[in-house]
Amino acid sequence: MKMDNSSIERVEELRYLGTTLTNQNSIQEEIKSRLKVGNAYYYWVQNILSSSLLSKTLKINICRTIILPVVLYGCETWSLTFRDERRLRVFEKRVLRRVFGPKREEVTW
Predict the structure, then answer these.
(1) Regarding beta strands 2-3 and 19-22, do their DSSP bridges make them parallel or antiparallel, or are they unpaired?
(2) pLDDT tens digits for 15-37?
(3) What is the DSSP code (8-state) at residue 104?
(4) What is the pTM of this model?
(5) What is the Rg, in whole angstroms, of the alpha carbon atoms belonging to the chain?
(6) Cβ within 8 Å of residue 88, ≥6 positions away
(7) How far lies 46's CA from each of 1, 6, 43, in Å?
(8) Which of 22, 35, 67, 76 could bond 13 through an S-S bridge, CB–CB 3.0 to 4.6 Å?
(9) Phi and psi of 16, rounded to 5°?
(10) Which residues are registered as beta bridge partners of 13?
(11) What is the Cα–Cα distance from 77 to 75, expressed in whole angstroms?
């Protein structure tokens, strides 16, 4: 495409401000990469979250301030399908299970 004597390249996807934009407005790859980064941040703070010295409330606050913002960055613009919502909830529950152990407990972020 040419505009004002400049050529503009057409691409399938573009990384802009930490978000992957595709020409088909698909967010599956974006969610996948966000979950991968969120998982990396979980492992980064894993020793803190598995400490028995911290209260459950403090552990939840750490998850809310360190892991959750990384996963949900830019989510205001996402058009989620049921499958996408489910993937995000599965990640959330997996992190909470890792933090609190196998005991079933209902916790809201």
Answers:
(1) unpaired
(2) 766 666 676 667 888 888 889 99
(3) -
(4) 0.70
(5) 18
(6) 31, 35, 71, 72, 80
(7) 48, 49, 5
(8) 22
(9) -135, 120
(10) 22
(11) 5
